[in-house]
Hints:
Layout: H1 5-15, E1 21-23, E2 27-28, H2 31-41, H3 48-51, H4 53-59, H5 69-74, H6 76-87, E3 95-105, E4 114-127, E5 131-142, E6 147-157
Antiparallel strand pairs: 1-4, 2-4, 3-6, 4-5, 5-6
Amino acid sequence: MQPTPDAEATLENLRARIGREAHSEWHRITQDMVARYAELSGDGEGEWIHLDPERAAREAGYGGAIVQGFFQVSHLIKLSGEAMRSLLPFDTNHALNYGFDRLRFVRPMPVGARFRARVRIAEVTPKPGDSFLLKEALQLELEDGTVTLAADWLFFLGPRALAGTFDAPPA
């Protein structure tokens, strides 16, 4: 099936955004949040590296407790959404999380550190039915520029996900 003329125009608009980058707001994960996440998910439950800041400061060399890797991942939805509003606002009801091509925990994130997401549109692939696969290159970074997480994240954008997005020229 051939893409419609509207889908071809959308593809060109998407490709014009490849390489563009944006940031989320700054966020912070507290020790209480880490403890609640451990209790809810079991991730880090009973591990002093996450739950005992004093012991972690003495024994681990990170200056205190560190945030669980998958707790950082759980923040990607919110942070990516904040960044993508300026890059490519899409209707999340018609955009599906397609998974990760790559996900790496590069450095520990200290509990209490301020961090944000840096998001770049990396790739767009046309799919049947006037849909697209969007790849975001994403990093979580601390205020000093240290990257704690790096990922290539995929979203399946159905034909209604981008409705109205290209009515105005890109900012």
